[in-house]
Records
---
Amino acid sequence: MVNYGLDEVSSQIKELAKKEISYKYSNNKKYYSYFLDASLNLKYSDDLSSIITYLDEEISLNVNTSTIINNKYYQGNNEANIFDKPILEIKDSYINFENKSLTYHYQVFEIENKYLIKCSSDEIDIISYIPKSKLKIISNKIILLLKSSKVDQNEVLKDYSLKTIITNKKEKVDLFKLKTPSSITLEELLKNSNSEN
């Protein structure tokens, strides 16, 4: 198996993720924004996703609505992996355009002699299926897209979650007030209950 510089790509991604960037987003959608540099072409875009082309390869950028909702209202991991073990995997932090440190999960899978790149944060998923020879250069663009993206989580929650946080008030209510007789026999108790019916 040819390595195609996986170690070099891994080092490059980690280094690029930690660098500060000076540009802000230029493409604004209802739920998200991101920076599209001059080398990238926008093929398709809607409120939750964009398809971008670079060197004749497609890069899909998607708002991760399920993770946003899960992180807000539920506990646990909703990350699913439908592929075999990745040949490259990085779980680390990155610095976004606002100089905030956020976490990401970068994976490369080998599928039918090509690479599938999946890069995820708590807000964004970026996916690309590319020839092996383009891994390094496409990975750079993916990390830059991730670093420049911003999601309006409140807007996503408002429009895609039916869950609301309910605050209940606790109140003690005596439903039954039992008065126990001071002295009674079982026969008298049964006689009294039968006479009430």
---
Amino acid sequence: MPFRALPALAAAGLLLTASGHASEFPGSRGTQHFAVVVGSGDTRNASTDSDDARVVGLEYEYRFSDLWGVGGLIEAIDVGNDTNTALLVPIVYRPFDTLRLSFAPGVEFTETEDLGLFRVAVSYTMPLTDRWFIAPEASVDFTDDNSAFLARVAMGFRF
């Protein structure tokens, strides 16, 4: 089951943190971040049925330039009575250091099938200290005949 990957991802993030070094917060080349993500939203299918969705996940990003980054995201998504798992690979563009636009292809694993998933998101990073941050985010997910609007908050640290 995809949930088995969640502890492995958390352990990898902690190992990267232990071996990494602190870098300055704004726009430094090679900056990485690890965050815990929580949120909720609304899903709709082609027949306009709607369900509430709750999300919890882990996110990693590596910035290979001042403007661009790439990462990984795993989320548990509760929709109705089902819990799905989403794996995404966000491609991140930062026109400003605090504004983050991401485009993320991925897969959503449900109890009955695996769905192609594409997410478009915008977030605003607010530094709490030189390493810690909080980032509210709005995103839209697209699968075969479903879409979801999610409001999420990430809290994490840069290293």
